[in-house]
Amino acid sequence: MAQVGYGAGNAICYVLVLWTAIVIVLGVYYCLSGQGTRIDIGWFLQEISPYWYAATGAAAAIALSVVGAAWGIFTTGSSILGGGVKAPRIKTKNLVSIIFCEAVAIYGIIIAIVITNLIEVRLAWSSDHLID
């Protein structure tokens, strides 16, 4: 039996386990040393601008839709090519599935544009009321 090597998935798993262990050790240390008030996420949530959340949502809309579309094009494209070897007539008929995958990416970009336009409207509205 061949030796199974360590891949990138194992390395990522080890890094996540190490990170989780460090966070747990620091949390237990702060709680046992009487400095438990230092573990507070509320200040982070209060100090971040709501526009940051909107910008993160727009970025996530673009990123996740493009990654999803790329994954869909990869899987459908490879299956179309594999099936095209056995039956060459089906290559052009199955291009509709790739077009739908591209539509997912376009939909994500449209949603990001809508979110960005709403951010600009709110910024203009809040800057008018700050002057008063």
Helix segment tally? 4
User: What overall form do the CA principal axes indicate?
Assistant: flat
| Tally of strands | 0
Largest sheet features: none
Estimate percent helicity: over 70%
Task: Give the percentage of residues in beta strands.
Answer: under 5%
Characterization of the model:
The protein is mainly α and 132 residues long. 80% of the residues lie in helices and 0% in strands. It has four helices and no strands. It has helices spanning 8-32, 42-47, 50-86, 95-131. Helix 3 packs antiparallel against helix 4.
Salient structural properties:
single chain, about 130 residues, mainly alpha, 4 helices
Quick rundown:
The protein has 132 residues and is mostly helical.
Secondary-structure map:
Layout: H1 8-32, H2 42-47, H3 50-86, H4 95-131
